[in-house]
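Q&A log
Question type: sequence-to-structure
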Amino acid sequence: MAEGRMNLMTAKEAARYLRVSMFTLSKIDKEGGLVPYRTPGGHRRYSVRMLNKYLNSSRVRQRKEV
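Response status: OK
Response body:
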């Protein structure tokens, strides 16, 4: 892979990384929790950085709710 190019995951890979179902990942997208990149064919792509940022922010929200 070219240097400086982002490593992107498919929706299935991202769901597995977050340990959620594809349905839940789609719901997170619709609620604005994640804004995936789109391929010319309309497929969703996620960066590891984007997913980690979501994980960290969701942990903070859970702590505040307790």
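Response note: The two ends are 43 Å apart (CA to CA).
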